[in-house]
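dude i think i finally got it to work??
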Amino acid sequence: MEESGYIKSLDGVRAIAIVLVMSLHTGIMHYGWVGVQLFFVLSGYLITGILWKEKNRPGPMPLKFRKFWVRRSLRIFPLYFGYLFVLAVTYLLFHFPHSYRVYIPYLLTYTYNFTRSFHGWQINPAFAHLWSLAIEEQFYLFFPLILFLSNRRFIRLFMVLVIIISPVSRYLIGMHFIDRGYAGEQLATIVYWNTLSHLDAFFLGGLIPILSLDKSIRKPRWLLWGSVGLVLVAGAVNYIYQDHHSFYLTDLGYAFGHTDNYVYVWQYSLLNLLFASLILLLVSAHRPVVSGWRRLLESKWPVRVGKVSYGMYIYHWLIWNYLFEDTIKPHNVLLRALLFIPYIAIVYLVAAVSYRFYEAPFIKLKDRYFPSPGVGKEKVPVSA
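look at this
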């Protein structure tokens, strides 16, 4: 979070999320997509916490809007639009990546996630993963309006209600596209890319600061272990009864792109609860001073990876597809696994260089124009 209350282990959570996503795109872990859910829940916690504190500070409301959006833009826009610009240049010179001309209007307006239902949609690893950033940006656009302009009681009721009805929303979205003739992985992905499918992820993370759950829940570890058990049992049952089977340890009942047993209705809710429980444990006022979870997540490399995870997310799929997939052609799962560590190292190095020499100057402007309260008192990481 961009405040003096920086929690180091949350950078480790980011590291887990990006490694999970990378494992999906290398074909190692079919459940690696859950890393995106983890990013969504973590964003909900961090952004809601920032907005909630800002709401309770004195000052004119227009200034609060401007501060939030300027700081977010300086963190997100330079890398995102810089990446799109480089792709535009390569497309003009080499017609690479293919179909870029078709999707660039949606990429520029953060509406790319809505293209998944388009007739003749084509996947491209250079930019297909940017759908999740579109959803995040849409959340950053509408949620501050609700939070700043509504009273506290309405905000709490609204968030709880959205969490409750989100599975119903996913069911109705699925039925709508089933009626239009979609099925299988295409149907699952259309639901997955829909903004309404993930509001409960943001809000479950956001309820932690809104309801002060970090102070009121005295034993968050029991909530975490209960969530772990629930996720594993539900995944095992789904694995047994799904139509398509792969090796269980690469699947866990949460393989990407399935619609068996209406997984797109319930699995997001379970995963969001699990990840919110993990974050709650890490930020809890009642957490133990030292624990195995925290030691692991606060160790040097998870923190380093977490701080540049945004850049790693932007670059990772293009690097895998064109540096590894097209050249080495690792069709064997074992070979993919062996390449995974050097792949992470390369993506990390690219993202670290990008962060230091390109993103950091923009990030420093945040505190030049709209200082965060912790600046000047304590060195605050700027990865939020």
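Residues 375-384 have pLDDT under 50 and may be disordered.
im so relieved honestly
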